Each structure stands twice: as structure tokens, then as C-alpha cells.
From TrEMBL, chain A:
The lineage of its organism: Eukaryota, Fungi, Dikarya, Ascomycota, Pezizomycotina. Belongs to the NPR2 family. InterPro entries: NPR2-like. One of its GO terms (molecular function) is GTPase activator activity. Pfam families: NPR2 (PF06218). One of its GO terms (cellular component) is GATOR1 complex. GO terms for biological process: negative regulation of TORC1 signaling; positive regulation of autophagy. This is Nitrogen permease regulator 2 like protein. PANTHER family: GATOR COMPLEX PROTEIN NPRL2, NITROGEN PERMEASE REGULATOR 2/TUMOR SUPPRESSOR CANDIDATE 4. It comes from the Eukaryota.
From TrEMBL, chain B:
One of its GO terms (cellular component) is vacuolar membrane. GO terms for biological process: cellular response to amino acid starvation; meiotic cell cycle; negative regulation of TORC1 signaling; positive regulation of autophagy; TORC1 signaling. This is Nitrogen permease regulator 3. It is a peripheral membrane protein. Mediates inactivation of the TORC1 complex in response to amino acid starvation. Required for meiotic nuclear division. Residues 626-687 form the GATOR1 complex protein NPRL3 C-terminal HTH domain. The lineage of its organism: Eukaryota, Fungi, Dikarya, Ascomycota, Pezizomycotina. It comes from Glarea lozoyensis (strain ATCC 20868 / MF5171). Belongs to the NPR3 family.
Length: 403, 693
């Protein structure tokens, strides 16, 4: 929410002056307006139009009582036609300190650049007048504030040649990088929102996002290059429309996290899980889900886990879709994947002594930082094959760490 | 981040000596501090006194794009349109090293220190000396891309830098440790020249990416900016410190300007002579590297202050894939700062936890000795007494020291990053490789490990055996004689965030047999009650018929009743009949139910009448429903051993809630671990168990 918007100028005789403000009186008192200013203009004067050295850049400042923040982009135009050879102005926005300021930066920069251009074209600001089809600056400010607050965007024709088009875009945090051994799961129905204008790579890979294929396989089956596939997926991740999970394998190990407690004590969550996973047979009671989660542990592969339950007379596969079950646990943070790493003593020693040579196939991965999933995807080797290959290393050289 | 092999070789010694779990704190919490400046307003107007470093980097700190617990080094393609970069910012000063003295367009002499990035200090000094409205308030100005944050201090309106107190006792208390106030007012009386200084402002400059800006600025402000300016206010009040130092630095700058000295020479001179300048340097060096700044301001009395941006000692939940990676940080749900109500409370330290030093004991002691404060002796005592294998309570009991003071000292060590609190290490407990351990450090850590434990298996093989299958730790030790060394190894690995305790959590599990039994009893009671009720109802009816003159009751003679009374009477009679019928049906059905049979193993009872029931987990034994309390009671009747029965009732509420690990029972109940596990074995069938860190 914009609390106020203003246009201020530096006048050679009077100094920094607020020329227009909306709402009236929010920054400096106006005759016939009873609004009390949000903060003392005097204390902030120096930061609204600072010395030339600080002009022509994005400037923000918090008011002394730490309630409001001024976002501005003071501009200084040098030209002999002006008194003292310069014209200084600032279109500023005032927001509460608790408001996320990032989306407004682009707005403030756009206001500065548009009006700088208009001033250079026809002295729109310095010769301010309202006749001739031009909008007054006061009216403009009012519309910009209202439109941005109500619609998050504005499209305002200023005169015949200039239009102000602005939109507040939410700024998301940088998403984590996509790894080729990740499996994307969509959070929305892409088929229903896709149209012809979508990016071609995106159109090609979308049908393959099925929660089963890993990134590399998606690239291969859609005949798209791996880097492009990752780029497209990164976009989807940025907009939080996919989730990335590790490969699902029956030889994989999953272990509970402390969040499991939430599951055990939350009946709605158990119901949600039951709806998602009891698709292979009759619906069992929620207790079995608790039992299934609590029996996952750091040294038990899924295969062994299934065997354990079978031995106890519970044929899990007859009732539960195990892949969905694991997905549910991972997405809710109830369990985590325990990855497998190979560590070669020789490799570590080489790293320290600086004699490390790359290109020696499997040994490159044996420094404890490359999980078996990565090897599987990049070298096209299954768990058993990797273990076989590692056995060919000198005796006692390789250790397997589960982490 | 790729480890450069040749460089790694050179740095091994350095790195091994720093190898603690804080080693990569820099990656985790880079504060993005890029410079610190001291600005004052004196008689002749605002002055830009000093800044450090002399040529600050103008680039935003780029953090490693590593998330969750990932270790791999797959190259990351730069994706998504970046924000507008400020490549030119700060460039001019950074190329070519030393900047020469020069002249500007008007022909005035410009010294190399007259600019900070592209900003002339003459302009900065005016914009960074805000009006009194900002006195002791947060000052936050961003001049893209740098954020200037500070806590300006003005002279008091009535003069002086501190509120004056103890006025009467001033003379008499002279020389006593009554303190700063007295001394400060003394200084005032001597009327030292303050150069008309009316304010000073130590400004911290932060440059980080937009998405992190608010958080980082807030941290620096709360933990460093505010405290440092306050300390300087104190020093100024007591000893006119800020002005004296500023006057000296400004004098040196003027002289160097006349002599056209190079900036590097001048900065060396200033840092040698001015304790304030070197304090600013120390703050910058420490804070920008996420370390603790320990300052000593040479005032009378001296001001000692330590500043840090606190960093977490451990993670309590699994880092999700979009959390910034904090590799190497211990991952455990064992939080010592949780009070009895289950809330996180930084002033509360669980007495059943133990102290694990984050560095070599001797090294920490020598550092603490160097600090030399009144806490030094007690802290060293605390370090000597505490062992990672003993809880604070055990230490207090065996060493005969006061528990509360021990906890306070331990908290001090934890806050100042010298130690962490962990559940006491024990050979009977289970430890696994932490999912958050930083395996990138393996090459270097292996060397440090070898040095510390020359005869032990290599670090990778130690970790491999711990991670292969969780077992009580004692099984890894070849013999009983090796146990102390193995516990030392465990402490080492825990300190580095390599391993974490695997803890056991339990919930009460109610089997169908018990559910049926309780249900049956409840029904039986209901039938019994209904029977009694119908009996009493009948007798009531008799009583009612016999009573004559009660106006509230119906008259005996039906003929004398009004129609509405008659209708009501009939309705009640119908109701009574219906209830009686229902009771009869209920009782008949109940008769058909097979009576509950208590088997030795309720979990294996497959009787047909239990088929439709499924086991039930009690969510919170602290807040049980009536039925749940009956389940617990039903179980307790099954335990024949009196001791087991008592323990059951005691443990149910305290430990079978999925929150308190069973490993803590021995410590909290003051029992032997073997004994508790023996008791718990008796409950094996009736609890649902999960194991996680």
C-alpha cells in the first residue's frame, strides 16, 4: 500500500519544496486540509532532494520514528537554460516500514526516467501548465497512487507522446538450482493454462512433468537440451509452480524428521495422506500410516521396509501406493532421503596435496560430495553397478557414508 | 564452490586450526558489511573523520547458491534476469591500487581520502549527520546500492553526553568504583575542550542483494550498530573520547594533505595512533567475517565491549530445498533452551544437558585469560568442570558447585560461541552421521582427525561405520578400554557437526483388545445404570402416585386432570416405555457381545470381534479424554510387577508424548540407563516408537 506520493522540486530561492502531494497534506500542511503530516518534512528535507552527488540514483530513507519509508529517485538535469544551470526534482513514494519495498523500486525508477525524458522533451515539469490536453501533475499523482493501490498497475496517457505504464511485480527469492537427478512435480494443471504464446521449450517439457521422470529423462524424452530444460524448470520453480523431489527408488533409504510428531498428532493430515496413498485397495485406518512412517529408519531401504511389514503380515503394496506415500512424506517434511556417498581415501589425499586429477570416471565422484543419485543419472549406472565398480578400487580405499 | 587444489594445499594448516562447526559461518550468515565510517558535527560543521577499509569494495556480496543439505558442485547456470547490476559502482577506486592526490575542476587540492566510492566525503559528512530528530534512533539511508545504517548520538540539550546522576555524592565517591557517572561529571567540571562537538555517528555500510537487504540491515543494526554507538557515547561521556580521537585523526589527515602523503601511509599511521580507528577496523574485520569483535577503548575507566551478530548453534529442523544451506551446522531436535512449558527461552538452559566446547580446551582458556575480566576465573572453572559426558546437574552434584551459577556461566560460553549444549554423550546411546554434515571439508577434516586420534580408524571409515546401521555407540569401540577415546572422538565429530544423536520417541498405542475391553466395560456400566434407573423410576412412580397434595405433581384422579395435563402424563408414560424398551434392547445386545479376554500379547490378538477395530494412538497423554485415561488404566492393570505398573503411570504423561526422547529418562529420573531401558522393554508392545535426530 502506498501511503502517499509526491512531486518535489528544488527551487533556487526556497530550497526543496513539495509541489504536489496525494493525499493532500500528508507530507506538508496544505491550506483547508486538516490532515496531519505523517512525519516532519523538515527532518527529511535533506534526503528528499539531496546534494547533487547523491542524485540520479535510487534513494530510500526511514523517518525518525521508524514508521514510514520514503522511496525516491532524485534527478538532477544540467542545462544552461535553467537558473543555476540545473533542474532538480524527485517523484517519491511513502510506504510504511513494514511494507515490502522491493516491488516499488521499479515504480520509482520509472517515474524518474519518464519525467526526466518529458522534461528534456518539452520542459513538462519546469514549465508546468495544464492546458493543451495535458494532465496536471497533481491529477497524475492521484491516479497513479489509486491505481497502484487498487489494481497493482496503471496505464496513464500523459500527453500525445507519453504514457505511464507500470505494474507492481512481486519479487520472489532466488530458487535453488535444478539438478538433473531431481524429479519435478507440478503444483497446478499446466494443460489448462497453457496457450500458444508460451515459450516453446516450456511447451515441450510440460507434458513430461509427471512426478516420476527425473530432469534428465524429461530432457531426453522431450528432445530438449538439458540446460534448456533446467532453465525452463527453474522458471516454474521461481513461480512456485513445481516441487522438486529426489529420485524415487526402492533401494533408497528414507528416515523420519522431528516433524513426524505433527503427523502422528494431526488427524486432518493423516486423512489427507490416506486419501492420497490408499489407492491400491481398501482404505485402511490411519494408524497404519503412522506405523509405516515410524518404521522408516536410517539403515533400512524401502525394499527391506516392505519386507519387514510383509513378515509382520502387512502386505503394504496391496493397499498403499508407496511412491505416493514417500512423496507425501517428503513434501510435508515428515521424512528425508538418506543419500549414499562414496569416499575414497586416495581421492581425499589427492585433494589436499593438490594432485587431484579429474576425468578418472568414478573416482571423480568419490570425494563424499556426490550422491549416488548423481552418479546414477550422469553415468547411467544403477546402485548395484556402482557398488561393483567401487569394489574394483584398492582394498580399504572406499567407504560408503549414508547421510 | 570448487576447491582450488593448490590453494587448498597451502591453507591446510590454517584451516585445520580453525576447523570447528563455525568454520563456515561465513557462508551461512554473511552480513554484507562493506565499510564503517565515523562522522561528527563539530564547531566548524560536519566532519567526515575516518572510514575503514580505506578502499571498500562496492560490490554486493554474492552468496553461494547452495540450498538445503546439498553438497554437490554442479555448475549453476545464471538463470532469470538479474537485477540491474551496479557494475560501475566503486570501480574507479579499485583499479590500480593507490589513488594519487589531484585537483578538481576549480583547482582545489583533492586528497585520495576525500572520496568514498564516487561520493565526495564533503557531501557524505553532511548527509550522514542527521538532525536531533534522529538522536538515538535508527538512521537508515540507502544510496543505491549501499545502505547506510546508524544510531546517531547527539549531545544532550542541557549539555553533556549522559544523564547526570549521583550529583550529591560526586565528591565523596571520588576514586571509588562507584563508577562512570561520577568520573564523567568530573570530566565535565574540568571543562575539557570538546571542540563544540554536538554529535557523532558511526555509520555502517551494507551492500547485499535486495531480497536479503532488510534482514541483514536489521541484524547489523540491533547487534552491532546500536551497541557500538552506545559504547562510544559512554566513552565520550566519561572521557571526551570520541572528540579527542577525532581531533587527532583530523589533524593527521590535514598534515598528510599538506605533505601529500599516500593514503596507505596515512591509514597505517592513523590505525597505529588512534585506538578508536583501530577499534573501527577490528569491528569491521570481525563482523564482516561473522566473528566476534572484542574491543578495548583506552578511556578512563576503560570500556570493554564484545560485539557479534549471533549465529545459530544448531538446526532443529531439516533444511528444506529452498532454505539457504547451512552445511556443517549440527542438526538435532535436542534444544537445551526449551523451558518446562515447551517454549523456546534463551535464558533457560536445561540442566540435563552437557557442555561441549567448540575448540581445544587449552586454547579457549588462554583466550579467556587474555580477556581478563571479572568473569575470567569462574569461566575457566566452569570449563574445567564441565564434560560433554556429564549433565550440568551431574557436574553440580559431583563437584559440589551451585547449579544456577554453573548454568549462567555455561550460557555465557554458549552465547559467545565457545561451546554448545548437547544431550550428554554416552556409550549406550546411538549416534548417526548428520544429514547436514559438510562433507566438502572431508579432505581437511581427515587430516585434523588423524592428528587428534592417530590410532583410530580414518574419519571416513569412522563415519561410514556409524552411518551404516544405527547401534548403541559402545558397539563401535573395540574394547572397554577404548571407550574414553571413543567418546573423545564422538565429541570431536559432534563439535564439527559430523554426527548427531539418534533419539527415540514414543506414543501410547492402544490395541483393539484394550479398546474393546474399555468399550465393553463402559457398556456394562451403562446397562447397569439403566437398570438401576428404571428401578428407581418405578419406585419414583410409586412415590408419585402415593403423594397427594403436591401442587406441582399431577392429581391422583385422572378425571380431575385438565386435558393438557392428561396429554403430558401420557407423553411421559410413552417416553418411559420407550426408554425401557431401548434399555432392554441395549441390554440384550450387550448380552450377545463376547466378553473381553485379556491375552498376554494384545497386539497379536486376532479374535473375530476385534476385526472392525483398529489400533489407536494417544496424541497427548497430558490432555487425555475419559476413554483415553481408561485405556491407560487398562494397560496398567495388565502389568503384574508393581514397579512396572508405577513406572507406567509415571512415564505415560512425561515421556510417551512423542516430544521427550526416551534417552532423557535416565537423566531426568536420576536412574541408570540400563535400568530405564529394562523398564521400557516391558512397554515395548504398548508404545509406538520412532527414531529420529
Amino acid at each position: 500500500m502506498i501511503s502517499g506520493i509526491f512531486f518535489s522540486r528544488f527551487l533556487p530561492q526556497e530550497g526543496t519544496k513539495v509541489v504536489h502531494q496525494s493525499p493532500p497534506g500528508f507530507l506538508v500542511p496544505e491550506p483547508d486540509v486538516e490532515t496531519t503530516p505523517l512525519f516532519s518534512f523538515e527532518t527529511m528535507r535533506e534526503y528528499i532532494i539531496p546534494r547533487q552527488a547523491f542524485c540520479n540514483r535510487y534513494v530510500t530513507m526511514i523517518c525518525p520514528d521508524n514508521k514510514y519509508r520514503i522511496l525516491g529517485h532524485p534527478v538532477c538535469i544540467y542545462d544552461e537554460k535553467y537558473e543555476r544551470n540545473e533542474f532538480m526534482f524527485n517523484f517519491g513514494i511513502v510506504i510504511g516500514v513494514e511494507v515490502d519495498k522491493t516491488p516499488y523500486e521499479a515504480v520509482v525508477r520509472r517515474l524518474a526516467s519518464t519525467f526526466t525524458e518529458m522534461e528534456i522533451q518539452n520542459q513538462y515539469l519546469s514549465q508546468e501548465k495544464t492546458e493543451g490536453g495535458r494532465r496536471s501533475i497533481a491529477a497524475l499523482l492521484e491516479i497513479i497512487k489509486e491505481d497502484l493501490n487498487n489494481y497493482n498497475e496503471c496505464m496513464i496517457p500523459v500527453d500525445d507522446a507519453n504514457t505511464i505504464n507500470m505494474k507492481l511485480f512481486p519479487i520472489y527469492t532466488t530458487p535453488p538450482p535444478i539438478k538433473s537427478w531431481h524429479v519435478p512435480i507440478s503444483k497446478m494443471k499446466f494443460a489448462s493454462i497453457i496457450d500458444d504464446t508460451w515459450d516453446l521449450t516450456m511447451v515441450r517439457i510440460l507434458p513430461h512433468i509427471d512426478g516420476i521422470k527425473d530432469v534428465r529423462r524429461i530432457a531426453a524424452t522431450s528432445s530438449t537440451s538439458l540446460p534448456l530444460t533446467k532453465l525452463a524448470l527453474q522458471h516454474l520453480l521461481y513461480y512456485d509452480s513445481i516441487i522438486l523431489l529426489p529420485l524415487f527408488l526402492f533401494s533408497a533409504i528414507y528416515a523420519p524428521t522431528p516433524s513426524l510428531h505433527t503427523f502422528i498428532t494431526s488427524t486432518p493430515m493423516q486423512d489427507e495422506c490416506a486419501n492420497y496413498v490408499y489407492i491400491n485397495g481398501p482404505r485402511l485406518s490411519n494408524y497404519y500410516l503412522c506405523r509405516l512412517f515410524t518404521t522408516l529408519c536410517t539403515s533400512r531401504t524401502l525394499k527391506e521396509w516392505l519386507k519387514l511389514h510383509l513378515d509382520q503380515g502387512f502386505a503394504v503394496l496391496n493397499f498403499v501406493d508407496v511412491r505416493r506415500f514417500i512423496q507425501f512424506g517428503l513434501i510435508k517434511g515428515l521424512i528425508y532421503r538418506v543419500h549414499k556417498y562414496a569416499v575414497s581415501a586416495q581421492k581425499l589425499a589427492d585433494k589436499v596435496s593438490g594432485k587431484e586429477r579429474l576425468g578418472d570416471s568414478l573416482r571423480d565422484y568419490a570425494d563424499g560430495t556426490h550422491c549416488f543419485d548423481q552418479i546414477t543419472v550422469e553415468r547411467n549406472m544403477g546402485d548395484a553397478k556402482i557398488m561393483d565398480a567401487l569394489r574394483k578400487f584398492p582394498k580399504g580405499d572406499v567407504e560408503i557414508i549414508y547421510r | 564452490m570448487k576447491l582450488n587444489p593448490s590453494r587448498a594445499h597451502l591453507d591446510v594448516k590454517l584451516l585445520t586450526s580453525q576447523l570447528t562447526n563455525m568454520a563456515n559461518a561465513r557462508d551461512i550468515m554473511h552480513p554484507g558489511l562493506c565499510a564503517i565510517a565515523l562522522v561528527i558535527r563539530a564547531r566548524e560543521g560536519p566532519r567526515f573523520v575516518f572510514h575503514y577499509p580505506p578502499h571498500p569494495d562496492g560490490k554486493a556480496v554474492v552468496r553461494e547458491a547452495r540450498f538445503g543439505t546439498e553438497l554437490d558442485t554442479e555448475p549453476i547456470s545464471p538463470v532469470l534476469e538479474g537485477e540491474e547490476s551496479d557494475e560501475e559502482f566503486g570501480e574507479e577506486e579499485n583499479i590500480g591500487g593507490e589513488v594519487e592526490h589531484g585537483t578538481d575542476a576549480d583547482g582545489t587540492h583533492v586528497a585520495p581520502w576525500d572520496r568514498l566510492w564516487e561520493f565526495p566525503t564533503a557531501d557524505l559528512e553532511s548527509i550522514l549527520t542527521p538532525s536531533r530528530a534522529f538522536h538515538k534512533r535508527r538512521f537508515e539511508l540507502s544510496l543505491d546500492p549501499v545502505v547506510f545504517v546508524s544510531y546517531p548520538v547527539h549531545i544532550r540539550e542541557e549539555g553533556g553526553w549522559k544523564k547526570k546522576r549521583f550529583k550529591k555524592s560526586r565528591r565523596r565517591k571520588e576514586g571509588e568504583r562507584e563508577g562512570e557517572e561520577a568520573k564523567e561529571s568530573m570530566g565535565k567540571e574540568e571543562e575539557e575542550d570538546e571542540g563544540g562537538m554536538t554529535m557523532f555517528n558511526v555509520v555502517f555500510m551494507v551492500n547485499v542483494s535486495r531480497e536479503e537487504e532488510d534482514g541483514r540491515v536489521q541484524e547489523v543494526f540491533e547487534h552491532v550498530v546500536k551497541k557500538f554507538n552506545k559504547a562510544l557515547n559512554h566513552a565520550q561521556a566519561s572521557d571526551n573520547y570520541v572528540w579527542k580521537e577525532s581531533e587527532m585523526i583530523l589533524g593527521m589527515k590535514d598534515k598528510a594533505r599538506e605533505e601529500r602523503r599516500p593514503m596507505s601511509w596515512l591509514w597505517n599511521e592513523i590505525l597505529l595512533k588512534s585506538t578508536l580507528a583501530s577499534a573501527i577496523r577490528d569491528v569491521f574485520d570481525a563482523i564482516s567475517n561473522s566473528k566476534i569483535a572484542t574491543l578495548h577503548l583506552a578511556t578512563t575507566p576503560p570500556v570493554d565491549i564484545s560485539l557479534q551478530i549471533p549465529i545459530p548453534c544448531f538446526l532443529t529442523s531439516f533444511p528444506s530445498s529452498d532454505d539457504r544451506a547451512m552445511l556443517g551446522l549440527l542438526l538435532t531436535s535436542a534444544n537445551a533452551m526449551i523451558d518446562e512449558e515447551g517454549n523456546e527461552n534463551p535464558t533457560h538452559l536445561n540442566k540435563h544437558f552437557a557442555l561441549l566446547l567448540l575448540n581445544n580446551e587449552e586454547k579457549i582458556i588462554s583466550e579467556i585469560q587474555a580477556d581478563n575480566t571479572e568473569l575470567t576465573a569462574p569461566l575457566i572453572e566452569c570449563i574445567r568442570l564441565c564434560k560433554p559426558t556429564l549433565s550440568f546437574l551431574q557436574v553440580a552434584q559431583t563437584q559440589n558447585v551451585e547449579l544456577s551459577s554453573l548454568l549462567i556461566l555455561a550460557q555465557h560460553l554458549i552465547y559467545w560461541r565457545r561451546a554448545i549444549a548437547i544431550p550428554p554423550l554416552h556409550a549406550r546411546e546411538t549416534y548417526i552421521v548428520s544429514p547436514n554434515c559438510d562433507s566438502r571439508q572431508l579432505p581437511i577434516a581427515s587430516i585434523a582427525w588423524k592428528k587428534a586420534f592417530p590410532l583410530a580408524p580414518s574419519l571416513p571409515s569412522y563415519l561410514a561405520s556409524l552411518s551404516a546401521a544405527p547401534r548403541p555407540y559402545k558397539h563401535f569401540s573395540p574394547s572397554k578400554n577404548h571407550r574414553p577415546t571413543y567418546l573423545d572422538m564422538l565429541a570431536w565429530a559432534m563439535r564439527g557437526g559430523w554426527v548427531t544423536p539418534l533419539r527415540t520417541y514414543a506414543w501410547i498405542l492402544v490395541h483393539p483388545e484394550i479398546i474393546y475391553e474399555v468399550d465393553y466395560q463402559l457398556k456394562a456400566a451403562a446397562v447397569e445404570k439403566a437398570r438401576n434407573k428404571s428401578k428407581t423410576a418405578e419406585s419414583d412412580q410409586d412415590l408419585l402416585s402415593s403423594s397427594t397434595d403436591s401442587s406441582t405433581h399431577f392429581p391422583k384422579d385422572p378425571n380431575s386432570m385438565t386435558t393438557s395435563q392428561a396429554a403430558e402424563h401420557a407423553r411421559l408414560a410413552r417416553l418411559a416405555r420407550k426408554t425401557a424398551e431401548e434399555t432392554a434392547i441395549f441390554a440384550a445386545e450387550f448380552e450377545k457381545l463376547p466378553p473381553p479376554v485379556a491375552t498376554a500379547h494384545p497386539s497379536l490378538n486376532t479374535a473375530p470381534h476385534l476385526k472392525h477395530l483398529s489400533p489407536y494412538v494417544i496424541k497427548d497423554p497430558h490432555k487425555v479424554s475419559h476413554e483415553e485415561s481408561l485405556y491407560i488404566a487398562a494397560y496398567s492393570k495388565r502389568f503384574e510387577d508393581v514397579k512396572v505398573r508405577e513406572t507406567w503411570l509415571r512415564f505415560c504423561g512425561r515421556y510417551f508424548n512423542g516430544r521427550e526422547p526416551l534417552e532423557m529418562i535416565a537423566l531426568r529420573e536420576g536412574m541408570k540407563r540400563k535400568e530405564t531401558w529394562g523398564l521400557l522393554a516391558a512397554f515395548g508392545e504398548v508404545i509406538l516408537v520412532a527414531r529420529h535426530w
